[in-house]
What does this fold into?
Amino acid sequence: MKILVFNGSPKKVSDTMRLTAAFIKGLTADATHEVTLIDVIDKNIAPCRGCFGCWERGDGHCVIDDDQNGILDLYKSADVIIWSFPLYCYGMPSHLKALLDRTIPLVKMRMEETDGGVVRHEALADFSKIHTVVICGCGFPDWDGNFDALRIQCRNCFGDPAVVCVPEAPMLNVPEASPLASALLARFEEAGREYAATLSLKGETVRSLETPMIPKEYYIRIVNGQ
Ligand SMILES: Cc1cc2nc3c(=O)[nH]c(=O)nc-3n(C[C@H](O)[C@H](O)[C@H](O)COP(=O)(O)O)c2cc1C
It folds into this structure.
């Protein structure tokens, strides 16, 4: 399989990429796959101009001549795309959002309504073979609403992706919490194996990956230095 990974963290050492690396380790454990990692922060990707010049061209490329057209070529030929990023203001970081916006050359102006009532643009080609995984780490403890906007965006943009939202991600760097971090990383590796076998994640698997490492009250006390 061709696995394309978008690392949307701007940091040299990303909490989220630790989880994603464990997932990829499991995903690639039993067979040889081609893994391409894009550190999005290092790419030259301008914001979309909204000109729809891509739809006039109709060849799956953008009229802006920067790194995005090469990324679109990788996108089109991928079997699995993993979006790995920290939650920023309840969504994805702006440099990654620029990349997402500029995947619009992959659809046409023509609209279609799905059975579920969702209206979307018709794809330029059959991209239904592309399976999407979203792994998002965040700094808050688990609370209702933190990931809501992101989950809706992922469903609308990617169809039916596997979405894993991990609270308390900075705990991965707390030396005292390393047994908890190791246990979570082992679960991510196992989840990668599951995904390799089924190209999906069971609900119970996602729940185990999203389970906070420590209780909310305890986490808040640590962050507040109490
Ligand atoms: C600009 C900015 C916005 C953030 N917004 C949120 C947020 O909305 N919710 C949240 O739980 N954490 C938020 N965080 C915290 C990050 O998601 C958290 O530190 C994460 O672990 C960083 O992951 P990384 O190391 O993979 O970059 C924000 C951090 C930054 C710098």
